[in-house]
What we know:
The protein is of the alpha/beta class and 450 residues long. Helices cover 31% and strands 20% of the residues. The strands form four sheets. An eight-stranded parallel β-sheet has the order 6-7-8-9-10-11-12-13, with helices on both faces. A four-stranded mixed β-sheet has the order 3-2-1-4, with no helix packed on it. Helix 2 packs parallel to helix 3 and helix 6 packs parallel to helix 7. The protein is globular and about 65 Å long. Zinc ion binds next to strand 6.
Amino acid sequence: MLGTRRAPPKAPMDRPPPLLIRHATLPDGRRGVDLLAIDGRFSAVGPALAAPVGTELIDAQGWLLSPPFVDAHFHMDSTLSHGLPRVNASGTLLEGIRLWGELKPLLTEEVLIDRALQYCDWAVARGLLAIRSHVDVCDERLLAVRALLEVKRRVAPYVDLQLVAFPQDGLLRAPGALANLRRALDMGVEVVGGIPHFERTMAEGAESVRLLCELAAERGLRVDMHCDESDDPHSRHIETLAFHSQRLGLHGRVTGSHLTSMHSMDDYYVSKLLPLVAEAGVHAVANPLINITLQGRHDGYPKRRGMTRVPELLAAGVNVGFGHDCVLDPWYALGSADMLEVAAMGLHVAQMTSLAAQRQCFDAVTVNNARILGLDGYGLDVGCRADAVLLQARSPEEAIRLRAQRLCVLRGGRVVSRMAPATAELALPGRPARVDFTRQPGAAPQGAGG
Ligand SMILES: [Zn+2]
């Protein structure tokens, strides 16, 4: 079961009994599917499976069973700090960075661990079982690095936490940042981060991308940079990131996060850029909640939406994920670890309203993010780790529409969270006594059932 905040579970947890989930609907539209989990992995998937003796049973009642949500972009060192030491008055990215700078000297390892563990509790309850978090390395003490490495160890039985060494104040701009970043990697942080648009000049931004990609290639690590998080159409560090990924053979291991300047770029230039990004195997991560609130702050009207070109990137063959980025911190005053809220915002901002596009938004918070993190054994196939979330919805698009209840969350074939279905008791003459907000099976549009 879930670890409590002050008494972490003793890993490894003992072996769970076999678990059989009956009558599930899967994201690809298959209905009436049973899944048997033995020793933490799915050992059979199909209709009407036999239950071995001593098997625990869950009747999914036709609800949607999905592999767990994955967040490809988060900041767990700043989460739940909103209002400390003050709120972000302008609402801009740059004031958020200043505010975080004011807060940093006041932080303690214990407070950071406590907030991160609380966030992970929320994540599990939302069926979010893998998170890539950036951790600020622009601090001689590397306090946040130490804290999040400890959190990673404690939550390992129920959340995969992947850490990115993130030079928030600029790799070349902040004194000692490169040395600190190397120290963080030595301590066990596993992904190389960067922030080229925050360096002093475009040239230094490009230089930081080169240095960081070479460092990652040398150490055999993945790269995930905050890249072009700006309304400036001339911020083109994604081009440099794709160039060095290609040059160093880092295909599939590099991610460009945010890429918001692409929203403002010239269409002709983008038509050249997208094939280069695809060819270099660079993943893209949009952060819809944050992009729609932070970008365009300097605009009059019309005011830019700011989010990167998600449908166009997908059409070019780029793997695109959505991240939550922030929850209750100097940059964002809302959020609750709900990746369906993230998917819903991405869908709206990018106008991805067709059935196929809505499914792509669901993929952007599940399978696409799993590819970005390089998760092993992710999915609902035989042999995959028995991690899953049962949603009170009958299809991925309904899950997004309703921000569906997470009826049950499984980790390694064990139930780690349960939530009551969302229903209302009605007191109306001649109307049903109960409503939930789902559509009846068969009422979905043609093709929705797969
Ligand atoms: Zn970020």
